[in-house]
Specification:
The chain is of the alpha/beta class and 315 residues long. 25% of the residues lie in helices and 29% in strands. A hairpin with a 4-residue loop joins strand 14 and strand 15.
Length: 315
Amino acid sequence: MNELRIVFMGTPDFATGILASILEQNYNVVGVITAPDKPSGRGQKLSASSVKQFALEKGLKVLQPTNLKDEKFLEELKSLNANLQVVVAFRMLPKQVWEMPELGTFNLHASLLPDYRGAAPINWAIINGEKETGVTTFFIDEKIDTGAMILADRVEIGENETAGDLHDKLMNLGKTTVINTLRLIEKGEIKTTVQPHSENLKTAYKLNKENTKIDWTASMDHIYNLIRGLSPYPCAWTIIEDKQEQWNVKIYQAKKEIASHDYLIGTLLSTKKEIKIAVREGFVHLTSIQFPGKKRMTAQEFLNGFEFSSNAKVL
């Protein structure tokens, strides 16, 4: 049996859930590495990561290096005397960090590797209309998400599931996968599988302003999948034009209506209760939106104080 001394590395809520499960199983976490505090909100006050807040509540030692190759940080990391590092939703590690512990460094990735390597696997699985996804643990090597796989677990993606829903589902699945991986390492029973090489791998590209904008000429399913795959964060968006004004509007939720019509693609139609956009196969109803400077609202709430003209459209 290997007596594990674990350093945990992670930053967002997803990682916090996994760290909590490791502690619940009474594993010895000797240190936590997370991102430096960042300015946030209107006052730009420094705010700590979800992982940092949780780790401090549990009395764990926390390190927040800005440079993972800094000699002072490397000395501090070495002094923790960990024999295993567990990484969840953190940044790329230099070789001197991931090869430091005797039992290696493994990562939990929110996809079924080798597909959806990269920054946003949960979002892209939904955007691409996948019916299932999962989580994979693997030993870190020189490249991003390419190391030898340890365990993988699958889960179905619901037809109307959002990225937020899937995030929580995969976090819960990931807890089990990480604990099972720790038990294998503890018992010295680890077996790995080299990731298969393929020319047709699907990639989890970093999300940006361009690939989160809705293309209303795309298929209805593609538009719907983009909206739910980016909800609640970072959110699909569009430009609404009306009355010689343009607004960048976030779309949190929508529903599909298959119908024949003669409207131009992108025409915005509204009543006192609904907003819908003409697309190739019918209409996409915008059910939860956010206009600039306003809070998130249902379409009906927004229309209580606003009326579109018959010339309104999306760009």
